[in-house]
């Protein structure tokens, strides 16, 4: 059966959520024989990992575009936290969204990478959060938040102690978590077109990178890297003909 683009992308989100449990999902990793340089060759479904509009990137050469504010309509909806071996992720209940280009994108989940995947003017951050949204047709919009080392992060403090240490484990959150607490007060952002940063690297993802970083303590950053056992950032990819708007 021929897959539609929508089913591929929606499948990708599920894949990102459930990779550790799905027996038919090919293995990939962040280093070595099945590391990022090999992803495109691991399976035909991953061919897009060698595409021309890949994420992450080093954000430079900004084009002034007077971007309209992103309208955030988030509720406390984080319901469970899981470790899928590639990241630590919080799944979100329906009812929270952003509006972008007049389209509503619902928040599905958020997860983390350490060190950051995207770079801003060549600068890497200790941690990067990805808030993954989908519209009704399965188009994706990711809000990225950079964390620099500094004061402890109050929002992370609510979920970090519940982070499952074993790949494949998940835990219900005792209280619905409010993802708005992860966002910087200043919501100015950079925008570019990119991809999922994990196989199958599907393109057409709207990337919205918050300009202002938030902070996390050295202990909070260490807690995440300790649970992951290894860096979980894909290297920056070629920008090719793309522009980064601000
Ligand atoms: Zn991510």
From TrEMBL:
The keyword Signal applies. Residues 26-246 form the Alpha-carbonic anhydrase domain. InterPro entries: Alpha_CA_prokaryot-like, CA_dom, CA_dom_sf, Carbonic_anhydrase_a-class, Carbonic_anhydrase_a-class_CS. It is an enzyme of class 4 (lyase). Residues 1-22 form the signal peptide. Keywords: Lyase, Metal-binding, Signal, Zinc. The keyword Signal applies. It catalyses: hydrogencarbonate + H(+) = CO2 + H2O. Its EC number is 4.2.1.1. It comes from the Bacteria. GO terms for molecular function: carbonate dehydratase activity. Its cofactor is Zn(2+). Belongs to the alpha-carbonic anhydrase family. Reversible hydration of carbon dioxide. This is Carbonic anhydrase. It comes from Rhodoferax ferrireducens.
């Amino acid at each position: 059966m021929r897959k539609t683009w929508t089913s591929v992308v929606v499948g990708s989100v599920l894949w990102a959520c459930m990779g550790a449990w799905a027996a038919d999902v090919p293995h990939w990793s962040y280093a070595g024989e099945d590391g990022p340089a090999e992803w495109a060759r691991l399976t035909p479904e991953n061919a897009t990992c060698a595409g021309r509009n890949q994420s992450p990137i080093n954000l430079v050469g900004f084009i002034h575009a007077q971007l309209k504010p992103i309208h955030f309509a988030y509720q406390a909806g984080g319901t469970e936290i899981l470790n899928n071996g590639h990241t630590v992720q919080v799944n979100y209940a329906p009812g929270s969204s952003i509006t972008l280009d007049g389209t509503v994108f619902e928040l599905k989940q958020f997860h983390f990478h350490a060190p950051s995947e995207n770079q801003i003017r060549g600068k890497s951050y200790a941690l990067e959060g990805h808030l993954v949204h989908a519209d009704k047709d399965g188009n994706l919009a990711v809000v990225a938040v950079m964390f620099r080392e500094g004061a402890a992060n109050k929002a992370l403090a609510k979920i970090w102690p519940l982070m499952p240490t074993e790949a494949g484990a998940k835990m219900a959150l005792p209280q619905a978590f409010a993802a708005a607490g992860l966002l910087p007060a200043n919501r100015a952002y950079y925008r570019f077109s990119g991809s999922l940063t994990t196989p199958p690297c599907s393109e057409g993802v709207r990337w919205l990178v918050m300009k202002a970083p938030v902070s996390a303590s050295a202990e909070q950053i260490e807690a995440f890297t300790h649970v992951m056992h290894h860096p979980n950032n894909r290297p920056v990819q070629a920008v090719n003909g793309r522009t980064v708007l601000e």
